[in-house]
Amino acid sequence: MADLEERFRSLARTTAPDLWEEIGRRRPGPAPRPPVGPRIGAAVVALVLAVTGIGFAGWTLLPREEKPTEPAATVSNGAIAFASGVGGYHIAAVTLDGAVMDITTPAGDAYDLGPVWSPDGAWIAFLRYRITDRDDGTGDYDLFVANADGSGLVVLGRSALAPTWSPDGTSVAFQGFRRETDHDILVAERDGSGERVLVASPLSDTTPRWSPTGELIAFTSHPVLDRDPGDADIFVVRPDGTGLTRLTGSPGWDFEPVWSPDGSRIAYLSEQWDEREAYVMNADGSGVRRLTDAPSNDIAELSWSPDGTRIAFQVFSGTSWDIYLVSADGTEQVPLVTSPLDEVDPTWSPDGTLVAYSAAGSVQSCRCDNAGTFDVYVVTPDTSSTTRLTVDAGVLGGGLSWRSTPFIAEATSPPRTPSGAEIVGTFEVGDDVRSVAYGDGSVWVAVSNNDGTFGGRILRIDPATHEIQAEIPVEVIPTWDIGGGAMVVHGGSLWVTGAVDRPGNFEDPGGGADAAVVRIDTASNAVVQTLEIGGNVGADLTFLGDELWVLLFGDETIDHRMEIVRVDPYSGEALARVPLSAKWGHTIVASEGRLVLYEPGEGAVNVDGSLVTVDPSTREVLRVATPSKYFEGGPVAWRDQVWFAAERGFARFDPVTGEVIEGSAELDPSRFAFCCGFIEAGERGIWFVGFDPRTEGSERRLDLFDPATGTVIELVALGGKGTTPVAMAVAPDAVWILNSEGTLTHVALT
Amino acid sequence: MGWVEHAPAGVERGEALERLYREQGARMWRAVLAYAGDPEVARDAVAETFAQALRRGEGIRDPERWVWRAVFRIAAGELAERRRRAPESTVIAYEMEEPARELVAALARLSPKQRAAVVLHHAAGYPLKEVARMLGSTPGAVKVHLLRGRRRLRELLGEGDDG
């Protein structure tokens, strides 16, 4: 059988028709031109320059005097983020002393690439590529934002590329695919909310770059899917979508704008007929000046020095990619790294003392940049010192991103593994307790009125003093006796789902109830809204970005099967409904843009069930049988992963592919046994209450499973049969366990 | 490739383009055939591309670069237009070796991005950076497309996996 290479050779032997005569017949007629809108004067000047020759530039439009910009006093050379190929493409970061930290851990077929730190280094945006249709191999990119250590993953955009942060780190602009090859510029808030289309021209709008002052976003616009290859030009637009202005108008391709650190100038690449060079212009499009005299037509990846005086770039020498520096006025161009190896992706350090790049480990036999194994290097601008930071990291092209604050571990989460835990105390909170949550600095406990209604009260408890700060009467509280959930603190509100009494609906075997969601403003402790959403009883709720999704028991009209309903958080209107086949469900979580829950089997709720993943955009439901007979709790979302507890231990579930990831951790049955049917995820790992088999099951214990290492830590004994845990909430420094006896146990982590 | 840079002064643009077509037109047609899976689309795109290049005359100073960039855009537009007019694709007979025919059929089952990456890199000979720019993507992303595309092709063609 022919191999792939032979098939391409076979293709090369296919006889092509001679089309020259036909070309001659088609030739008459005017050359098509793209529509030309109003252009500012500077663009006309750029056109003149392009036509008359670059030599005019110095005469016509002298750039402003180069004045170094002082780097911010607080910057330091933090970790360099890159896409690592070790163990599957994921985002990692390396410090100048060579310490490497993995930031993301994509599951299954996913690849993470293109990391971009937020300006303050607290967040990182990156792209995740994965197969989205297993039948035809279609793949796509999603844009994610995570905390600097990879936790708190949020989807910002689907089919997205080229993220760029607002200077204040609150928003990200990116290039989204609205159709196959038509890109638009979109903006979303860092938490995934408020996505809006900023630019949706008939052209393809790509590579947005937010100005350092925050006032403008530059991008490239070029024709697609027409019969005119046309030109590409650079535009700017304000972040509110107004003020769209074309900056360049040369007959060639002007693209890949890069703002100077002070936002006064834009460097860019321009392909003026037979050569591609770097140019610079003022932020209003004036003062166009050619910067480079590249040895070949291939030049890319412009990176300004922090003081704005120099620009690093990569250029193809004819045999390999090299890195050069050019002064920001174009007067001096010097090689920085030139070797027979490929050196790509130059990136200035935040303090301007180094340039990072990635380089191949061996000479490539073809002009196939990014082939082979690349590593991260740094070099001083005077070339006096070069240091290799990674070894066989398999760096994937697409850019390095240099963090301007110290290494991740110093700036973000506390250590994942606590050295110990102690019970601070157990105190009474009410007779009929239903659920507990932590958020906005408080512990929230739902207590039923125990009067035959669905109503109750929400207790707001000070985690330090255990004082009840507020007791909030509500019509709706969680209906669960065990397992908790159904309460989420999100966006300055506590969201609670359960049911409201519907006296006129006694025909409903569910007990005369409609599913409902209550929203309590955590600033005022006031019940802001009670949303009645039909169905029967709300089981759980979760937020997917800013979308509110509720898992609910359906009413008799759908044979009391479960539904997942997207609810307008303000009107209560059901915006989307996804029917399920099961009649019981407890927990729903959101991860990687999917909704995940567990459906029980026919016999009992924790036997022979399935894990279910729902694509909220297509409503597609994927069911996968659990790998073991008994289901012990979950699912929970830990960082960007979904985990659940099964018969033998913890297992990881890929919500996109529906695969249960092999190699998940099993528990030693001589030491661990799940107790109570629920688990909870926190930053440090997945928490569960277990029986200790060594005490013949009489002792319960709080344990921690660390998914990063696969280890389980025995933390603290919870006491004997006097308390029965029914729900749990995880805070950064504590775990709060609700007991059926109406008490709350505060476990402090040390 | 790159002969235009060495063209003697005074060579007429029409002659230069004809030389370019004679040198690279067949390879271009095959690349577009692999991309579009349709010899008529390939024929139309290549002919239209060179016709436009002739119309633009001296306005194009690097015809080689220009036509290679243009032909895939024109092919994509033509393909979209044909699908709009006739959603049910028809198999058009064209004489070619069986391995090549199977390859073109398998390419048609890749996602458009994978197919474009594979064809532009392996059939048209573009480096990743150039492919990335044409697809509005990044070299890293294109490399992933290539990895996935080749793997998928091998699956479809019943060959081993290259990892």
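Chain B has seven helices and no strands.
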